[in-house]
Amino acid sequence: EEQHKSVRGITPDAMEVLMGYRWPGNVRELENVIERVITLMDTPEIRAEDLPTYVRSDIADRAVSGPAGLLTTDAGGAAVLPWADYEKRIIAHAMEHCGTFNAAAKALGITHKTVAAKARKYGLVDETK
User: Fold this and answer.
1) Do 51 and 17 touch, CB atoms closer than 8 A?
2) Which of 39, 65, 91 is the last residue of a domain?
3) How many CA atoms lie within 13 A of 52 on its CB side?
4) What is the CATH number of the domain that holds 54?
5) Are the CB atoms for 22 and 55 separated by under 8 Å?
6) Which residue range forms the structural domain that includes residue 103?
7) How do the pLDDT tens digits run along the chain, 129 residues long?
8) pTM of model > 0.70
9) Is residue 88 part of a domain?
10) DSSP 8-state symbol, 48
11) Among 60, 14, 62, CA closest to 38
């Protein structure tokens, strides 16, 4: 009513994003996001794509899970993945951008043998070649 807009509801996708976000600013942050979305939206329903990018990307970032489908958290409640998950992502990223074990190793500051071993360990290379 404050925005002089008629909002009929929220799509299931948008609700899933809102429910999956951590809300470090608690209720005040939620209120601010909803007010901003209503101000900028041009449809009668709040859609996931109407939500701020940082809210949508938070749920995508947390979709990667650790053992038993769960993320562990640090003392502040932030998601923490097992070391191997980070290592795999780093090696995969370096290999994708650098193309060879040698180039990836130089970029990462480690030996090409380490890159090759980690790439094999995490199934990032085709062993049949």
Assistant:
1) yes
2) 65
3) 14
4) 1.10.8.60
5) no
6) 83-121
7) 777 788 899 999 889 888 888 888 788 989 999 998 998 888 899 998 888 888 877 655 554 444 444 455 555 555 667 788 888 888 988 888 888 999 999 988 999 999 999 999 988 887 665
8) no
9) yes
10) G
11) 14
